[in-house]
Amino acid sequence: MMHPAEATWHKSACILCENNCGIQIQTEGRRFAKIRGDKDHVSSHGYTCNKALRLDHYQNGGRRLTSPLRREQDGTFTEVS
Ligand code: SF4
Hints:
By secondary structure, this protein is α+β, with helices and mostly antiparallel strands.
């Protein structure tokens, strides 16, 4: 297991609203292990609201759809490719 001090912070941007605040992310596989504001970002200067800090929930939440769904006449849904 990697020591926390050795983990790499990846620069990215929050896409949850038009501000696109700069963020830095530590990943573990497909999960976002840690998220923080990017102090070097030209406009957000390290700021994030709470939504950005929960991006792992939005990306990997258990109720997220994993394929397109077609609504059937009876109101149920069928996965489609
Ligand atoms: S951190 Fe908040 S304010 Fe910034 S882009 Fe994301 S949702 Fe918008």
